[in-house]
Amino acid sequence: MRCPWPALRLAKAMREAGAVTLLADDPAAPREVAALCADQGWQLEMPDKGHFSVRR
């Protein structure tokens, strides 16, 4: 997904889920997703480039 969609879609998905896996090719996604997770207190793992695992 392209900017700002990864962070927006993650925020929407996390409203209903306790964990989400996100795939994004946007070069800004790592920074935006990390900032969102830090702001919300979510745990973030980035096992591979473009792959994000987020948990409450």
From TrEMBL:
N-terminal signal peptide: none
Q: Which domain of life does this protein belong to?
A: Bacteria
One matching Pfam family, short form?
A: TusA
Domain (UPF0033): residue spans on this chain: 1-54
Query: Gene3D superfamilies per the record?
Result: TusA-like domain (3.30.110.40)
Q: Name the chain's protein.
A: Sulfurtransferase TusA family protein
Organism classification: Bacteria, Pseudomonadati, Pseudomonadota, Alphaproteobacteria, Sphingomonadales
